[in-house]
Structure of FMN reductase [NAD(P)H]:
Amino acid sequence: MEFKEFIDLAKVRQSCRSYDPDREVEAEKLDACLEAMKLSPSACNAQPYFYYIVKGDEAKNVRDLLQLGKMNSFAKDVNAFAVITEENYNLSAKLGSSVKNQDYKSIDIGISAAYFTAQATSLGLSTCIMGWFDEEKLQKYLGTKSRIRLVITIGYAKDYTIREKKRKSSDAIYKIVSEDK
């Protein structure tokens, strides 16, 4: 897909819950998503996150840890995942976070995930950002003690149909404050 304006990309990016299990995600496309993620802004350029890309036969290990009860049953058809851990701030971001009482890490992780998924969409991939998983078992599988914040499913949609977006009204989510009337 080619997008001339970001709004065109935003209109078609959506969470996918029906993947084609027979289509593998190309390494070049995953690399491009990771490159976009690296370019995302973060407080004091701290980039307080780490991405584990799990694909191929290894993806089964992540699939099993996402499907808790009836939750995330669609993950059974996903063959690539990005598991995002929270890492340490640099000194200036740590100081700023403390002084301003702001959780910049969560903000930065969210922005990086948005860049990753936007790039994926621009390459014809589908994604779903997930927060429901067995964190302890994922940590053990990945060999990390870092907190796992998000898992992104990555693949090709079984049926790529753009759904109508249901969003709050503009008045409910923003107000422009200006002397211009």
User: Anything to note?
Assistant: Strands lie at 49-55, 80-86, 126-130, 148-155.
